[in-house]
Amino acid sequence: MSNRRPDTDFCEGRRLPLVEDFYTIQGEGFHSGKPAYFIRLGGCDVGCSWCDAKYTWNPLSHPLVATDEIVERAASFEAQAIVITGGEPLLYPLDYLTQRLHAHSLEIFLETSGSHPLSGEFDWICLSPKRKQPPLAEAFAAASELKVIIETEEDLRWAEECAAKVGEKCMLFMQPEWSRSEQMTPKIVEYVKAHPQWNISIQIHKFMHIP
C-alpha cells in the first residue's frame, strides 16, 4: 500500500503535509548560527539509516495544513530567514509557498537531497546529496551550498564526485555524521586542511542543545 497522497490533495501547493514549524537558530552549514524560522514538511523516500528526522518519513502521519496559515505564522516572527526542510520538501509543489513568503520580503533557504525536480524560488539552496538516491543534474546546477555527510572514509570520495558536478561558486562543506563524529572529525579535519576548497560544518544546535 502506497503512503503517497494523490497530487490533487496538495491543491497545487496550497496545502502541505506539515510536521512542525518553529523559530530557532540554524545549526549547520553556511548559515550556521543565523536565526531562522523552520518549516519542516513530512515525507521522504531516501531513508538514510543515520537520519535524525525519521519521524518525518511517512507523509500520511502529518496533517495537510493550509499554506497561507504556515506563511502567516512564519511572517509573525522576528526571523528574516525561512528554512524549508523535511523529510524531502521537493516531493511537493513549493511555488505557492515561496511566492507567499517572498511577498513578506523573507529570505528562503531550501534543504534538499536534490532527488526530485526543483519547484519554488529560493535565495539559497543547500544540497545534501545521498548515495541511495543521488541528486538530479538540475539540483547540482542550482546548489548554493554542497553539504556532504561523512559517515565513513568512502564518503570523502563521494563528496569529491558531487563537488565535480556543482557550479563554480557553490560553497563546499563536509559534516561528520553525528553518531560517528568522534571517529570521523579528525579525518575530516586533515582532509580539509589538505583540500582547502572544502569547509567543515558541525551541528552546533546539538552541541548547544538548541531545539
Overview of this structure, please?
The structure is a single chain. This protein has 6 helices and 9 strands. It is α/β, with parallel strands linked by helices. It has one domain: TIM Barrel (Alpha-Beta Barrel). A 9-stranded mixed β-sheet has the order 3-1-2-4-5-6-7-8-9. α3 (137-142) links the parallel β6 and β7. α1 (67-75) runs parallel beside α2 (95-102). The radius of gyration is 17 Å and the shape is globular. The termini are far apart.
Q: What's the topology here?
A:
Blueprint: E1 15-25, E2 35-41, E3 64-66, H1 67-75, E4 81-85, H2 95-102, E5 107-112, E6 124-127, H3 137-142, E7 145-150, H4 154-163, E8 171-176, H5 181-194, E9 198-200, H6 204-207
Helix pairs in contact: 1-2
Strand numbers in spatial order across the main sheet: 3-1-2-4-5-6-7-8-9
Give a count of the beta strands, DSSP E runs of length 2 or more.
Answer: 9
The low-confidence runs, each spanning 5 or more residues with pLDDT under 50, are: none
Straight-line distance between termini:
34 Å
How much of the sequence is in beta strands? 15-25%
CATH level-4 homologous superfamily = Aldolase class I
Radius of gyration: 17 Å
The CATH topology name reads: TIM Barrel
**Proportion in helices:** 10-25%
Largest sheet: 9 strands, mixed
**Given the C-alpha coordinates, what overall shape results?**
globular
What is the domain tally? Answer: 1
- Helices and strands, in N-to-C order? EEEHEHEEHEHEHEH
Structural class: alpha/beta
